[in-house]
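User: Predict the structure for this protein chain, please.
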Amino acid sequence: MKQCIDNPNDVDWAEFWAERVASKKMKNWDDAAEGFYKRTKKDDYNTELFSKLILDKNDRVLDVGCGEGSITLPIAKQVKKVIGIDSSPKMLEYLNKRACENNIENIETKLMPIEEISYDEIGDIDVVICSRSLNGIVPIKEVLYELNKIANKYVFITIFGPENKKIEKDFDRELKIKTEDFPDYNYFFNILFNMGIYANIERFDLKNYRKYDSIEDAMDNGKFRLDLYSDEEKILLKDYLKRILTFDEKEKKYFNIKDKADWILIWWKK
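Assistant: Here is the predicted structure, written as structure tokens:
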């Protein structure tokens, strides 16, 4: 018998989110760090994100899940200070290396799981940015509470859009695997709404599709969960990519026009 809910605001969206995220095996970010470091480049995601951020030269910014610094470093050139937080020592090692190579001295890094972020630990910050970092967080309501408390001006968050991972989902269907997406942005909006945070939502208009130097590069770029595939499935993946990718003779790159990211920006002013 279905439970009847008189008021939609009584739905515990955070519980639904936690149930879906908890069932997923998270990526080992230390293992992935080198690949991210080698592949980092400015793309239309960065362009879209930076066109939306509201930053002042005197701002102190918290970059949550900063990774190897693809967002952190360009932000640091625009503001007074950036604190980058990540749970991967290897990611922070690459970030600090990049900062040193570019003579950027206003970045502070903290080794800390996102789930453990707290106002007591971080204190007051002008702008909080969570770029592609909250999709896998189980205690999402608790984390959002702390981030909202930390921010004095704005909070900017990007999470998966509904059309993310198109070619990955097609491959899963070939393997007859049911693709379990991360919770959609509508969960996220409703969690915030129930917290009394009335956020703005925008979908990035990303046009660039991914390009690869080789079939092997397409396999090992972090999109496919190779750690979860058997040896036989990896062979099938290679065959699949050979079928769906087109080789551009001019650029000497492989591509598929469906292979684009889909991201949603959620932001609010304090």
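The chain has one domain: 8-165+181-210+260-269.
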